[in-house]
Write a structure and sequence with these properties.
single chain; 145 residues; mainly alpha; 2 domains; two-stranded parallel ribbon; two-stranded parallel sheet; 4 strands
Length: 145
């Protein structure tokens, strides 16, 4: 989705794909004025036993922005992203990141897994990626590919 398409999130999806009413209700109930925070979207998915992508799809169809990405990549007001490059990246962290690259990019889920494996904050992994000039791809909520 390009910057010009902002606010037309539902256009990313086939029109015949239908909303799950339970997910739609939960998203509407939990969204803030500025959008649905990533962490809240994951709580909704867990509470309802649906994949995170279903919650992201629902937010898109309801034209609700996904905000406050837990990797710091989008949804932080005018500056848009929160993540900055790390000053240093440990060899172990770099190796784990490089081992999970797909077409030169680190999938969001892999970044989360690395954070859990190394007992790091998710933002620490994305900061390391910034320092290594590695893009993170495939948002689990579908905010970016």
């Amino acid at each position: 989705m390009t910057h010009e398409d902002k606010g037309h999130f539902s256009q990313k999806h086939p029109s015949e794909r239908k909303l799950n009413p339970d997910v739609a209700h939960a998203v509407k109930e939990r969204a803030r004025e500025e959008g649905l925070p990533c962490a809240v979207a994951f709580e909704v998915a867990k509470d309802l036993g649906v994949p995170p992508e279903e919650v992201g799809f629902t937010a898109d169809r309801l034209e609700i922005s996904l905000i406050r990405c837990q990797l710091g990549l989008h949804g932080y007001g005018p500056e848009r992203k929160k993540v900055t490059p790390s000053d240093t990246v440990t060899p172990e962290l770099e190796a784990r990141i490089r081992d999970r690259l797909i077409h030169g990019k680190l999938p969001c889920k892999a970044a989360w897994d690395i954070a859990e494996e190394l007992d790091l904050r998710k933002l620490a992994v994305s900061s390391a990626c910034e320092a290594l000039e590695i893009k993170i791809s495939s948002c689990q909520l579908g905010a970016f590919r």
